[in-house]
Design brief:
Layout lengths: L1 H27 E4 L3 E7 L2 E6 L2 E4 L5 E8 L3 E4 L3 E4 L5 E12 L2 H6 L4 H17 L4 H6 L1 H16 L4 E12 L2 H96 L3 H16 L12 H24 L1
Antiparallel strand pairs: 1-4, 2-3, 2-5, 6-8, 7-8, 8-9
Membrane topology: Single-pass membrane protein
GO molecular function, one term: peptidase activity
GO biological process, one term: proteolysis
């Protein structure tokens, strides 16, 4: 009976020991997720860093001291009271974007990194805002953000932290200054509205004047074109009249030439004697003398013409005698 009881106790102890060993082994297995790091201490001293994957620790000897998240963190800080260079009290709240770059430093170099960053942000902001007027503070957020990020990044580097970005969310001045700023903005909006209205009227007047100018230019060009066309028409008419007159003169000259040619042909066909020709010449001179001309050009052979006249008289007297005899 005692032997059976002893065996049962031994079996129970062995079973418990086996269960303890299995549980210890299972608890010694660590699976590290992506973007996380396990810091392992051995007998109270930092031993190694476990990155993503499966790892096995030595029971009792090794333990996980901390788990560090390597992703970017966003921390919003409460509004802080600050005073500008022109002695205006304002409230500023900010947000910081940071991430752990050195898990060992972050674990063993700083106790509370979030509180340290918040206090450092507040003191740095006070120094920066104290150098600026209220108007500069309201309009220089980018400059303040850049300077603040530079200071924080340098200070937190020894803590294994990198500050990626710092943003000032709100700048709240006192109530009376807010009212004054609101009145100023209202006056500025009214002024801008008046400027826009005046600018619109100016542009409208310019467009109207430009339209009148273009209309006058087009009208002047139309009148010019009409005058050019009228002058061109008159020129063409004068050319046509001159061509008609020239054609008429040419036709008359051609008709006279044809008549003279016909007379010449007829005279030539009749075969007149020199005496007849001279008599015809004298008749022509007589007709010329009857005109309005004050000068008469007499041919150089006047002696022969006188002889012709004498012969003509003699011929006329002979004809008269013959007529009387009959």
């Amino acid at each position: 009976m005692n032997d059976s009881f002893s065996v049962l106790i031994i079996n129970t102890i062995l079973l418990l020991l086996a269960i303890y060993i299995v549980v210890t082994i299972i608890r010694s297995i660590r699976i590290v997720r992506q973007a996380e790091v396990y810091l392992v201490e051995r007998l109270g001293k930092f031993h190694r860093t476990l990155e993503s994957g499966i790892h096995l620790l030595i029971p009792i000897v090794d333990r996980v001291a901390a788990v560090k998240d390597l992703r970017e963190h966003v921390v919003n800080f409460e509004p802080q009271s600050m005073i500008t260079r022109d002695n205006v009290g304002i409230q500023i709240d900010s947000v910081v974007y940071y991430q752990v770059t050195d898990p060992v430093k972050n674990q063993y170099e700083i106790n509370n990194p979030i509180a340290a960053i918040e206090n450092l942000t507040a003191t740095t902001l006070r120094n920066l805002i104290g150098e600026l007027d209220l108007d500069q503070t309201l309009t220089s957020r980018d400059t303040v953000n850049a300077k603040l990020r530079t200071v924080l990044d340098e200070a937190t580097d020894k803590w294994g932290i990198k500050v990626n970005r710092v943003e000032i969310k709100n700048i709240v001045p006192p109530k009376e200054i807010q009212d004054a700023m609101e009145r100023q903005m209202r006056a500025e909006r009214i002024r801008r509205e008046a400027v826009l209205v005046a600018q619109g009227e100016k542009e409208s007047n310019i467009l109207k004047a430009e339209g009148v100018k273009q209309s006058m230019i087009l009208e002047a060009e139309a009148q010019k074109e009409a005058q050019i066309r009228q002058a061109e028409g008159e020129r063409q008419a004068a050319i046509l009249r001159a061509e008609g007159e020239a054609q008429a003169i040419l036709t008359i000259a051609e008709a006279r030439a044809r008549g003279e040619r016909m007379i010449y042909e007829a005279v030539k066909a009749a075969g007149p004697t020199p005496a007849v020709v001279q008599i015809r010449s004298m008749e022509a001179l007589e007709k010329v003398a009857d005109g309005k001309a004050t000068k008469i050009i007499i041919p150089s052979d006047a002696t022969s013409m006188l002889g012709v006249i004498a012969a003509a008289k003699e011929m006329l007297s002979d004809q008269k005698e013959e007529y009387e005899k009959e």
